[in-house]
Specification:
Blueprint: H1 2-12, H2 22-30, E1 40-49, E2 52-61, H3 69-87, H4 91-111, E3 116-121, E4 126-129, H5 131-137, H6 151-158, H7 165-178, E5 182-188, E6 194-204, E7 207-217, H8 219-232, H9 243-260, E8 264-271, H10 274-281, H11 283-300, E9 306-309, E10 314-320, H12 324-340, E11 353-360, H13 368-385
Antiparallel strand pairs: 1-2, 3-4, 3-7, 5-6, 6-7, 8-10, 8-11, 9-10
Helix pairs in contact: 1-2, 3-4, 10-11, 11-12
Length: about 400
């Protein structure tokens, strides 16, 4: 639609001879020949209005696209504007009319964007909002009804729509006070959508005039990113955490333990006789032993615990809020479940593992590497005391 009006403007301010060629019109409009220009059918004729030579241009869209009512109204206003310009004695009237038309054209252009746009003045009153903003934010009232409303109040009303709403509102206030561009802020809504927000302050001759917010729905992108992160932190064989995922999530648990004064225990595990299983029964049987151990450990663990495969036949489990006594109960239950695999009917091999644990006191944030090392040493000590297990 914008191209249509620009081409018409060039045509009406030139003579028929100057725009007789279709490519000349397009080149004059854009400075270069746009791709796909042949969709337009242009017909040029020359007429006289009050003694002035005017080139009239009729434009047909070969794609047969149905123009919206807003586009039709804009063309009607443009025609009226040309007529007013030919008849007006006062050039300022024509300039004001052109300025008004440009404002309307800008409004139609912004309203056609997929991005949500919000313009707020220095007093924090909403001056412009497009339809995409209302759709993206789930606002049922028309965009025009938001004009003049206080932005701070609107932000407070919307805070419940976001995960960690207090953080959302605090970030909005901080951005408004600092008046510095803030780009690509990721916001998560309670309806499981992800938005990307850009903020830019508006200054005119050094004077603060307001600010512009632009939102984009990036749910598909964020879901893809999270899925890649999930896959990157998972063991391909067993489906539980790998070393990378375990270390990242363990750091979070360690901070929580320090904040709330809770114990933290790491249990290290190493499967016994896995090489024997691989040698006598094949690698598929060895893989099955790893998978079964991961499943049993996950069943015994709680939802707040972490279970990971950190090496070939090495596993680590982080027990949040467990002291030494609770950790011992966990180890006993896991050993009981493993022992049953030796007596299950139809099985050709059993699973056993050496386990060791290390527990922190709830004082300060624990050093995970030291904790894992201590659990690993305890596990190897237990492994040295165990009798070889036949397959």
């Amino acid at each position: 639609m914008q191209r249509t009006v620009r081409m018409a403007a060039v045509a009406l301010n030139a003579t028929a001879a100057e725009i007789r060629n279709e490519e000349d019109v397009l080149l004059a409009s854009y400075g270069e020949l746009p791709t796909g220009y042949k969709r337009w059918a242009l017909y040029v004729s020359e007429v006289r209005v009050r003694g002035r030579r005017v080139a009239m241009l009729r434009i047909f869209d070969r794609s047969y696209r149905v123009w919206s009512q807003a586009e039709q109204d804009l063309l009607d206003d443009f025609a009226a504007l040309v007529s007013e310009d030919l008849e007006a004695d006062d050039s300022e009237t024509a300039k004001d009319a052109y300025r008004s038309l440009e404002t309307r054209r800008l409004g139609i252009l912004v309203n056609s964007l997929h991005e949500a746009v919000l313009l707020v003045d220095a007093s924090r009153s909403i001056r412009y909002v497009n339809d995409a903003f209302c759709q993206m934010m789930g606002i049922k009232t028309p965009a025009a009804a938001l004009i003049g409303k206080n932005y701070t109040g609107a932000a407070e009303e919307a805070m419940e729509d976001y995960v960690d709403s207090e953080k959302y509102l605090h970030a909005v206030e901080r951005i408004l006070v600092e008046r510095r561009p803030a780009l690509r802020h990721i916001l998560r809504r309670v309806d499981d959508r992800w938005l990307e927000r850009d903020y830019r302050p508006i200054f005119h001759h050094g004077q603060y005039e307001g600010h512009l917010w632009v939102y984009r729905d990036v749910t598909a992108r964020e879901c893809a990113r999270l899925e890649l992160e999930f896959l990157g932190e998972r063991d391909e064989l067993t489906g539980i955490l790998n070393r990378r995922g375990f270390c990242r999530m363990a750091e979070v648990r360690a901070r929580d333990a320090a904040r709330y004064g809770r114990h933290l225990t790491i249990v290290a595990a190493d499967l016994d006789q896995l090489r024997g299983i691989n040698r006598r029964l094949g690698r598929e049987a060895g893989d099955q032993a790893l998978i079964e151990f991961a499943e049993l450990a996950t069943e015994v663990a709680r939802g707040s615990d972490l279970v990971a495969r950190i090496g070939g036949d090495e596993f680590a489990m982080l027990l949040f809020g467990c002291d030494e006594q609770s950790a011992s109960v966990f180890i006993e239950r896991l050993q009981e479940r493993l022992a049953r695999t030796h007596y299950a009917k139809g099985r050709i091999f059993g699973i056993s593992a050496s386990l060791g644990c290390a527990t922190t006191v709830p004082q300060g944030q624990p050093v995970l590497d030291d904790l894992l090392e201590a659990a690993d040493q305890e596990m190897h000590a237990q492994k040295g005391q165990r009798r070889p297990v036949s397959v």
